[in-house]
Amino acid sequence: MMETHARSRAVLFLFLTAALWSTSGLLIKLLTWEPLAILGGRSIVAGIVIWFSLRRRDVHVTRFTRWQVVGALSYVGTQLMFITATKLTTAANAIFLQYTAPIYVLLLGWWLLKERPRRGDWIAMAVIFSGLLLFLGDDLTLQGLHGNVLAILSGVLLAVTTLVTRGETRGTPAATFLLGCLIGAVIGLPALLQATFSPLNLGMIAFLGAVQMGLPLILYSAAIRHVRALEASLILTLEPVLNPLWVFLVIGEAPGQLALAGAALVVLALTGRAWVSARNS
Questions:
Q1: What is the pLDDT of residues 110-130, one digit of tens each?
Q2: Rounded-to-integer distance, Cα 93 and Cα 151, Å
Q3: Which residues have C-beta within 8 Å of that of residue 198, sequence separation ≥ 6?
Q4: How far is CA 232 from the centre of its chain?
Q5: 20 to 30 Å CA-CA from 41: which of 79, 189, 198, 242?
Q6: How far apart, in whole angstroms, are the C-alpha atoms of residue 210 and residue 78?
Q7: In contact, 90 and 141? CB cutoff 8 Å
Q8: Widest Cα–Cα separation across the chain
């Protein structure tokens, strides 16, 4: 009973993580900073939030394990690859190819974590990818080869991050993200020092660091202990679907009918998969 409650809470945390991550699209569009400056500023704020969270739980990080270093580097690499990919190909291509991550999680998780996919996983993945194709279909293109390759690599690195943090359930997954934030801050610092520090920009970077990145990483770190890597990866595909919702609510830019149908498919697949998993747990 205790494990069932922990798992249900973990699924809720992952849905909240996806929802909070999805606010990045609108704010990054409004923010006037360069991508590396955003990476640096967001990493600094998120790192502070995670550090305080660890201290509050009386967790003192004095050294990082080899796998935490791998997870931190893959986490930073995911961001850098995705940012660069969006410059070299369409945003739709970058999003869709990055969120092929569940495929790599399925293959590598089966091998590394001995987590065999279930029939519901295959069905959910097929429906989710169909929904994403509908959702992003109008803007998908074969152009931008280098950007497409980088987007695929960002998906592979996202899968590695998921598997590493899932594999260290007895450790402290949040410490992996703390190290990732430190690395991101160092990489983005030169660009950050050249940024324009207006009150609006500072407010948006504070939100991106604390609410869009820091808090979700804490929620994700708590959730990944109780959910299989593939299921976590599938739930997080909700993020690109929610991204345009915030754009619509603030700017009024409405998605088309096919996009809405695709979004509905993704949400139904994720909700159905979570419900079936809860019944079987």
A1: 777 777 887 878 888 888 888
A2: 8
A3: none
A4: 10
A5: 242
A6: 19
A7: yes
A8: 53
